[in-house]
Design goal:
Blueprint lengths: L24 E2 L6 H10 L4 H16 L21 E2 L14 H9 L2 H7 L3 E6 L2 E7 L1 H5 L3 E4 H7 L1 H7 L10 H9 L4 E5 L9 E6 L6 E2 L2 E6 L4 E9 L7 E3 L2 E6 L4 E9 L4 E11 L4 E8 L4 E4 L2 E4 L5 E10 L4 E10 L5 E10 L4 E10 L6 E10 L6 E10 L4 E10 L3 H9 L4 H12 L1 H4 L4 H15 L5
Parallel strand pairs: 3-7, 6-9, 7-10, 8-11, 9-12, 10-13, 11-14, 12-14, 13-15, 14-16, 14-17, 15-18, 16-19, 17-19, 18-20, 19-21, 20-22, 21-23, 22-24
Antiparallel strand pairs: 1-2, 3-4, 5-6
Helix pairs in contact: 1-2, 2-8, 9-10, 10-12
């Protein structure tokens, strides 16, 4: 697609590049109790964490794959490498101390620039290893903790153990059990009472090796009256073999706290992305998920908020973009367990070139949760005749005193719209791109500027050659 309207020329090599697989620590392919013991030994973990891993592994073995959603029968868990780390020892705090190939990877992805200009703290994970982590001194002085989760196990043990595995237990689903058995890296964030982090914290996750699994574990705690915005990005190069990403994210919003969690996912189309993300919200707190899913072979991701305190609120805004060979099964869950709670779920999806998107959502109102208000809106756009979009809403309302709305719309791009834009000098492909970005404007405006520009470029890449 040619340049138009001042858009940046397309260059997918920004994402699709790979380094030689030179790792300081790496386990053989396959999964077993010995592999899990090896991972724990490499990390020099306390006995309680190894015990947790082994119990999770036993549950993983006994728990079948779900019989709903995308087809996962091609998953061969013994074909993946479960731990590969380019570093020995702790994550580096100076960019200059990273190996050249790792440093150059994140340079190309814009991480140092982002750290300098936009964020209060940055973490970078390369396959299984958190290679870099740094937080601004002014946030540290406020008592903010932002480190990788492996470090938190050793340095913030009591605080981590209070919440770890409590929001997403390993018994929740097969992939939560897998993550709990082999997790590595991820972010640990703690915001003290009344502290507003003020500036976002960012983590970036990169898969480099062939047939590797990435299993970060993220735990975010906003104490009473605290505020934080956490942003994550994800990419991987293209291989003929599949890779596996199965993260677990746990978020705690104590009374009067506010947490926003933003994701822009751009995994390559050979990655199974099977993620469990869940938050609990207490009295008068707010949890916001802003979730963009543009890459992967198969995605299953349903950010959830359990509203456990009176007046708690949840806002979930998600986007799914599926092209040829992609199945993006995403959505949201809002579980209202307390009175006067509210939730808003907005889902936007686009499927092109035979891609498939699905909205899968749950709205649950428990007995006694009076005065609940919830609104769900699902908008799907199908620019061609070979793609597919489905909606699977589940409403479980056990209280009469609740106000619930649900709206779902599937549409196509009108010929009149395309004709109008082409009459103003745009090529057909550029006209469709402009329409798609308008459809996603509600999502894009919630992103930091650099991420919004990135979303624009990614949509361009997918649309290149799709029409015209």
């Amino acid at each position: 697609m040619a340049e138009s309207g001042g858009l940046t020329p397309l260059d997918y090599t920004r994402y699709d590049f790979k380094n030689p697989e030179t790792y300081k620590e790496r386990t053989p392919r396959g999964l077993s109790r010995d592999i899990i013991r090896t991972i724990s030994k490499i990390k020099n973990e306390p006995a309680w964490m190894l015990d947790y891993r082994l119990r999770a592994y036993d549950h993983f073995l006994s728990h079948p794959l779900q019989d709903w959603g995308p087809d996962l029968t091609d998953l061969d868990f013994d074909s993946y490498t479960y731990y590969a780390n380019p570093l020995e020892g702790e994550p580096r705090k100076r960019w200059e101390d990273l190996p050249d190939d790792v440093k150059n990877t994140f340079d190309r992805l814009g991480i140092p620039k982002a750290e300098r200009e936009f964020f209060g703290g940055v973490g970078a994970q390369y396959d299984s290893g958190t290679v870099y982590h740094k937080i601004r001194d002014d946030l540290t002085k406020k008592g903010v903790i932002f480190c990788d989760t492996d470090t938190a196990v050793k340095e913030h043990t009591d605080l981590l153990r209070k919440y770890f595995g409590k929001i997403v237990p390993f018994t929740d689903n097969k992939f939560a059990a897998l993550n709990s058995a082999v997790w590595s890296g991820g972010s640990f964030v703690y915001i003290p009472p009344g502290v507003d982090a003020g500036i976002p914290l960012q983590a970036y996750f990169r898969i480099n090796a062939r047939s590797v699994g990435q299993f970060e574990r993220t735990l975010i705690i906003a104490d009473k009256g605290a505020k934080v915005h956490y942003i994550e990005g994800c990419t991987a190069p293209v291989y003929s073999d599949n890779s596996l990403h199965a993260a677990v994210v746990e978020v705690v919003a104590e009374p009067d706290a506010k947490v926003r969690y933003t994701t822009v996912q751009n995994w390559s189309k050979n990655v199974y992305n099977l993620v469990t993300k869940r938050a609990v919200a207490y009295e008068n707190s707010l949890v916001e998920w802003v979730d963009g899913n543009l890459g992967s072979k198969v995605t299953m991701k349903y950010p959830s908020v359990y509203l456990k305190g009176r007046g708690a609120r949840a806002d979930i805004l998600s986007v799914a973009f599926a092209s040829e060979g992609q199945v993006i099964d995403s959505g949201a869950k809002a579980v209202h367990s307390a009175p006067d709670t509210s939730s808003k779920i907005i889902s936007k999806s686009i499927a092109i070139r035979g891609g498939r998107t699905s909205y899968r959502g749950l709205l649950h109102v428990a007995p006694g949760a009076t005065g609940v208000k919830s609104a769900v809106r699902c908008d799907a756009l199908l620019p061609d005749d070979v793609s597919r979009s489905d909606t699977y809403p589940y409403n479980e309302i056990h209280e009469e005193d609740a106000t619930i709305t649900h709206e779902a719309v599937v549409g196509k791009i009108g010929e009149e719209e395309i004709f109008y834009l082409m009459s103003r000098g745009l090529k057909e492909s550029d006209a469709i791109h402009l329409i798609l970005m308008g459809f996603l404007a509600e999502f894009a405006k919630e992103l930091p500027v650099d991420y919004a520009l990135e979303l624009n470029r990614l949509i361009q890449l997918e649309m290149s050659g799709a029409v015209g």
